[in-house]
Amino acid sequence: MKPLYPVILCGGSGTRLWPMSRQQFPKQLLSLVEENSLFQATLSRIYHSGIKTIFDLKPPVIVTNEAHRFLIAEQVRHLGLEDSVIILEPEGKNTAPALSLAANYINGINPEGLMMAMPADHVIQQPDAFLKAIDLAVENIEENALYTFGVVPTKPETGYGYIKKGASKGIISALDEFVEKPDLETAKDYLDSGNYLWNSGMFLFSTSTWLASTKELCPEIHQCVEKCFQNTTHDFDFLRVDEAVFKTCPSDSIDYAVMEKVKSSSKFQAYVVSLDAGWSDIGSWDSLWEINEKDQSGNVLKGDVLAENTRNSMVLSDGRVVATIGVENLIVVDTPDAVLIANKQDAQSVKNIVNRLADASRDEIITHRKVYRPWGNYESIDNGARFQVKRIMVNPGATLSLQMHHHRAEHWIVVTGTAKVTRGEETFLLSENQSTYIPLGVTHRLENPGTIPLEIIEVQSGSYLGEDDIVRFQDNYGRNK
């Protein structure tokens, strides 16, 4: 059996699914279709499908960024895949350098390995058909062959790139060309011809073939990433590469850097595998509406929603009751700090709102009110001039950094669980309904020594309450700020 390493590319911010998707908690980490996040579903359809395959499945290699590393590690842990390898990109450089990071790692442990590269944020509703397509590609893989997977189109879609098929043998075809996103009439022609597939962004090839193809077709990327691996370090669950070197790497996609150049090379061949497995990249709210189960009126309703005379709409509530009356074809997304209301046909224009928020330096595109940390999470529940109130949850056994603030004091009130508090030279325990005070400028630390989550209310007061007013002296998670 051929060894197969799933490579999960877990970058991107999913701005078209704002306000649910934010830079610090993007769509791949959200549970939008099922209980698992999109990232977890990507792993589960391979590792927990129960379907017998012809390849020897190896631990996944995940490429992500610094900001999401602890969230990714936690979601992997919940799936029981602790042997996963998590490679950190020092900077986003698109998919070709990210895949090359994974290839260099895999080549170092198993030069005979195959790589199955997948984005972390796609939905595949028929995992059995998906795995059968991988099986077929693995069975037919040859030296110097690069496979991509093209989705059999179900409608004239203008939001996807296309792949034109060449000579075919079953569901495997020579790759004729990549085509950019078409207008509607062109998309209709593509659908009628039967010769075009949606570009899924998934690939299969041997590690040696990828490295050889990048060496010939995009040598700058190849050389840069290879050099990065001359100075790697392990940091908790993560593999770090040379940051300074990687930041000099050109930014390019797998398609542009390699796949579109294969025809110009006499050494490599590109093929496309036709995939009919209920695929969607859920790149917008209307595509999420399409794949979700609907009620008799064509609505997708999630959360505390009351819909009266409402048709063909998606209404999502993340807390408050949301009521709709006499509307149709709407997207309504309610979060604690932002509400989106859009006509379904204009869902792609969410990016324009995100751009306006970015131009205004608004925090609503960066983070939610609930902010996740490696030790748990916190949520701002009230704030005003010189004060802020937070709800803080600390995981069992977790510890915040030993820290100090120059501009604020803090009051802590334990709601549930047991808190171990370090305050200056003191260390003491607090139980439910007990409280303490941390004066401005005093070194302190909060720990959860118990077996249940610790929840506290923190009241901050002072002249400046920003998160950058933290001086860390010791941190279990290797953070320097």
Task: Report on this structure.
This protein has 481 residues and is an alpha/beta fold. It has 3 domains: 3-280, Alpha-Beta Complex (Spore Coat Polysaccharide Biosynthesis Protein SpsA, Chain A); 285-359, no CATH class; 370-474, Jelly Rolls, CATH 2.60.120. Helices cover 22% and strands 36% of the residues. The protein is built from 11 helices and 31 strands. The strands form 7 sheets. Strands 21-22-23-30-25-28 form a 6-stranded antiparallel sheet, with no helix packed on it. Strands 7-10-8-9-13 form a 5-stranded mixed barrel. A 4-stranded mixed sheet has the order 15-17-19-20, with helices on one face. A hairpin with a 2-residue loop joins strand 21 (370-373) and strand 22 (376-384). The longest helix has 15 residues, at 95-109. It is globular.
Q: What is the fold's blueprint, element by element?
A:
Layout: E1 3-9, H1 38-47, E2 56-57, E3 61-65, H2 69-78, E4 85-89, H3 95-109, E5 114-119, E6 123-124, H4 127-140, E7 145-151, E8 162-169, E9 172-179, H5 184-193, E10 196-206, H6 207-217, H7 219-228, E11 233-235, E12 238-240, H8 243-246, H9 254-257, E13 269-275, E14 279-280, H10 285-291, E15 300-302, E16 305-311, E17 314-317, E18 322-328, E19 330-335, E20 338-343, H11 350-359, E21 370-373, E22 376-384, E23 387-394, E24 402-404, E25 408-416, E26 419-423, E27 426-430, E28 435-438, E29 444-447, E30 454-462, E31 471-474
Parallel strand pairs: 1-2, 1-3, 1-5, 3-4, 4-12, 7-13, 15-17, 16-18, 17-19
Antiparallel strand pairs: 5-10, 6-14, 7-10, 8-9, 8-10, 9-13, 11-12, 19-20, 21-22, 22-23, 23-30, 24-31, 25-28, 25-30, 26-27, 26-29
Helix pairs in contact: 3-6, 3-7, 6-7
